[in-house]
Amino acid sequence: MNPATRDPNKRRPVHRVVIVGGGTAGWMAAAGIAKVLGKRLDIKLIESDEIGTVGVGEATIPTLMNFHNLLEINEQEFMAETQATFKLGISFEGWRNVKEDYIHSFGMTGTDHWTAGFQHFWHKGVERGLAGDYGDYCLELKASLENRFAHLPDNGMNYAYHLDASRYAKYLRRLSEPRGVQRIEGKIVRYTKHEDNGDVRSVVLESGQEIEGDLFIDCTGFRGLLIGDAMQEPMEDWTQWLFCDRAIAVQTESVGDAVPLTRSMAHQAGWQWRIPLQHRVGNGIVYSSRHLDEDAAMKQLMSNVEGKALITPRVIKFKPCQRKHTWKGNVVAVGLASGFLEPIESTSIHLIQRAVVRLMQTFPTDGISQADIDEYNQQCNDEIEHIRDFIILHYHVNNRTDSQFWIDAREMSIPASLQHRINLFRETGRVFRVPNELFAENSWIQVMLGQGIMPRSHHQTADLMGDAELKHFLGGIKSRVDRIVVQLPTHQAYVERYCGRAESAKAA
Questions:
Q1: Neighbouring C-alpha atoms within 13 Å toward the C-beta of 431
Q2: Helix (H) or strand (E) holding 78
Q3: For residues 398 and 387, what is the distance between their CA atoms, to the nearest angstrom?
Q4: Distance between alpha carbon 197 and the CA centroid of its chain, in Å?
Q5: Helices (DSSP H) in 237-330: which residue ranges?
Q6: CA–centroid distance for 14 within its chain
Q7: CA distance 439 to 445
Q8: Distance from C-alpha of 140 to C-alpha of 105, rounded to nearest angstrom
């Protein structure tokens, strides 16, 4: 039976939810569903200790706090349990050109007018010799440069986390099981399907145990056991725009204070990450196998890490792609099973979170509805395409001539949706956020400016200010930012004090 013609009179009520796979995706799904609907559902999670997880998604973005608020998570406890640090943005080193760096920070820059964003006033200030760097007017960016951090009143500092992904999954498990999630240890060897509509009926473990469900959440990673194999949902290939298809990850000892930034260091065929946690540093190299072989990538990575390696470097193969339908029949793919772009803007955990929240909003309590499936898939597709365009921007707009990788990225054809955004900003300085889009105007502005796109004009509203008024306006914003930053403690000192109190309370 074609799922698009699903008979509404033959809906099966959803009482049994089976999460196939653990890791970050599985336990985020379990925690979210159990918190919202745990009293009404039978929730099982199947995972095997013998099957490893990718476990390198250790940098997040501020939206994770929304999920934590839903779960009523205590931040100090969470940070102590996952050895987390704070993150104010990403340092892009060598992306625009060799030895040219910029920061994509969280939060707002300057003060907008209802007719025009702050960038228009800043642009006029640059023309008149009255403005400093665009980042001078952003609290989070300036604090990150000074390696400072603190919680401010009224959520005055926008931040995310660096965290240990393996510890995070274990932490969520400890929250989920008391709320009714049953973890089942075992390896899945096959599945069975309903004959009438092709939905998954059960999964069978190596032990012979059969587990039936009404709704299955596929968190089996790149394997996509149910969404790919059982439901035959293909991937849409995006490698024509995103060349990187390999990563090598390694953990090292900490050799200095943790900074509130993810470092993203460009190299001749991709980039390298450095993520500081409380107890260690996460490192990895992302590269295109068409432009760099594995041995050279390994050498590049290990020659540019600090501290002793704690594990054997692990090679991860992936393909930038996305399933057109991440919910098909009674299977919802979450995490890597639904697709993967690449880790550059730390969106992987966000996409897991959004999938879980979106599923809660469209949960098929009275039976699976094709209308719900269509709405869910449309929202997923819109969101991932916006993120895809934002990531392509980082590669396409560059001035590097030192390697074929960067030349190819600059010369490739890009999606029309991204080309429009670039043209609009370059010609007018304007940026408009698409409804429900992840990255706000300031993110697009920071990256486009950082990659070298300077607008040719600004909004006429900025011309209503004379030089004296504009100088006072810009100077006032910069002074406020500087006054706050100088009063902040160092990031390292704040983390030690903040998480130390959590440990002390736990011990008591």
A1: 25
A2: helix 75-82
A3: 19
A4: 35
A5: 294-302
A6: 30
A7: 10
A8: 6
0.90 cut: is pTM over it? yes
Q: Which residue has the tokens 């429900």?
A: 436
Which spans in 288-399 are helix H?
A: 294-302, 348-361, 370-396
Residue 242 has, within 13 A of its CA and on its CB side, a CA count of 23
Pairwise CA distance, residues 455 & 452, whole Å: 10
In angstroms, the CA 149 to CA 485 distance is 8
153: which residues sit within 8 A by CB, 6+ positions away? none
Burial of 75 (0-12, 13-18, 19+ CB in 10 A): middle
Residue 39: exposure state from Cβ atoms within 10 A (0-12, 13-18, ≥19) = exposed
**Pairing relation of β-strands 235-237 and 270-276?**
unpaired
Average pLDDT on 105-130 reads 95
Torsion of CA 360, 362, 363, 369, to 10 degrees: -170
Instruction: Please check whether residue 119 is in contact with residue 448, taking contact to mean a CB–CB distance below 8 angstroms.
Output: no
Is 74 in a helix, a strand, or coil?
coil
Give dist(CA 278, CA 452) in Å, integer: 34
Please give the C-alpha separations between residue 84 and each of 58, 174, 276, 500, in angstroms, as whole numbers: 9, 17, 9, 12
pLDDT single digits (tens) 212-248 = 999 999 999 999 999 999 999 999 999 999 999 999 9
The span from the CA of 309 to the CA of 297, in Å, is 16
